[in-house]
Amino acid sequence: MATKALTMDDLLASESSVKQITSGETITGTVLSLKKHEVLIDLGPQGVGIVPRREVGFSRSLAEGDEVTASVVDAELDNGYSLLSLRKAAKERGWEEVVAKQEAGDAITISPYDANRGGLLVEYEGVRGFLPVSQLSAEHYPRVGSSDKDEILQRLNSLVGKDLTVRILDADRKANKLIFSEKEAVKEGLSERLEKLKVGDTVTGVVTGVVDYGVFVNVEGIEGLIHISEISWERVNDPNDYVKVGANVEAKIIAIDKDRLSLSMKQLTKDPWLDEVEKMKPGTEVEGTVTRITPFGAFVQLSPAVEALVHISELGSGEGVDPEKVFTLNERKPFVVLEVDKDNRKISLSLPGNKKKK
Asked: Which of 203, 202, 194, 165 has the alpha carbon at shortest distance from 181?
């Protein structure tokens, strides 16, 4: 059967039926050729598109015949080709994925590519976003002194290239803003683990930070704080003398406040104070070291676990009594026990030759 010859009207009708591409739309084509500075894309009836070669490295390596999706930057250049962008198309598809994940509340896996002191820089499905320090989980939050900016950055840099499970906290396509949260991703499991814990339990955790006022511990994703007063029965001047970041510690839960634990290391051991003060009866002479001098008296270390006070009233009468003229810091000298208050863990001292009957 002979093929019917196409008339001029048929050709014009066929040409007019081909949808003309417009700037901003996304189209699919096939790699026609790869040149030094550009990649040609066969768009079928819609012609040929050009992609600058610099964009190829951003998406993937290409070969002739590969199918690609591109965004139209300019529908018709002077040479009749269309200017296309693989990067923009990838980003558009990425935003669709971001919005879908946010609406579903799904947890996703990301791998930060860089860090600054404010947090981690992330790229997800071609869309660049940010994971702020404040949204890191207890396991990864850099608990360091507030003035130690370099250590914060060092801790954050250790997370670059590491897989993290997060949820999308905020996604604004128009503002090109994408914020991730690791804290939100671990919340569900966190609640279940918290329900199983109670005050008095002994837990094991990893030290994540040591600061002036205590020690932060990660207990299976739950943040715990061992206050400096709960580290040891001894007077603790520097928590770094007792624990280091990364060390495993055992502690007792003394309070649960929302999603944080208050912990104690010292309460897992017997209070040596109670044993030692049994020997310190009123009227007994003891030796101690002056550790602090205040306007109302001096504090004296009788042993690593026992501290006592010489009140200013034991130094004489009158307004002219000055503890700084009576005591020298770090001097060791004899004292007399006046009173032992076990309930309030207090011991009162006096100077020899100034004993008072109690």
From this structure: 165
Task: Classify each residue of 340-356 as buried b or exposed e, where b means 16 or more C-beta atoms within 10 Å of its C-beta.
Answer: beeeeeebbbbbeeeee
Is there a domain that residue 100 lies in? no
Residue 2: pLDDT above 70? no
In a domain, 6, yes or no: no
Owning domain of residue 295 = 274-350
C-alpha to C-alpha distance for 142 and 210, rounded to whole angstroms: 10
8 A C-beta contact, residue 316 and residue 326 = no
- CATH number, domain with residue 218: 2.40.50.140
Residues 325-347 have pLDDT tens digits of: 889 999 999 999 999 998 888 99
Which tokens in the block code for residue 288? Answer: 């101690």
- The Cα 38–Cα 54 span in angstroms is 8
pLDDT (tens digit, 9 = 90+) per residue, 21-36? 888 788 888 888 888 7
